[in-house]
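Re: weekly structure request thread

Next one in the queue (163 aa):
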Amino acid sequence: MRRRPALVIALLCCSACPKKDPPPAEPPKPAVEPKLALPESKPNAEAVAPRPDAEVEIVGTWSSKVKASKFIIVAQAEPCVPVPASPKRFGNEAVLDQPGALFAEFFMPQGTLATVCLYAFDEKGAVVGAGTFPETPKTFEGLGELIIGPHAVEVGPLPSAGK
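Done, posted below.
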């Protein structure tokens, strides 16, 4: 029995001894990324997607002081009058049947400066009248539908060359 009290005393001595804390751990060192010697790349304009064409919608009403066999609406780079011999036109021409409601849609490159014109043609295909749409010439730029109008446009006779 003598061994038990010695064992109890030994256990009490061990539990009463102050515990030693482990030494503090060193903070982790930040990971160093290897530096790669990469050449600088030049900007590549071809990598940028081109902007879609401007979608221009012309709305309103029209009338005419000129008798004609057909009327068309166009968007072109030149003014409507004097009528250009070789106009630079954008989009398709819309043939108009009768005076009244007007709607046309053209797709042209972003930033295009254009005039919207109404032309009257005789039976031989010669231009006999013209009208310029208000708000034009205008620079057409933007995404989505660019709506011009509603406006009322009147086709009048062309000015005489002698006046």
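The longest helix spans residues 3-16. The longest strand covers residues 145-157.
Next request, please.
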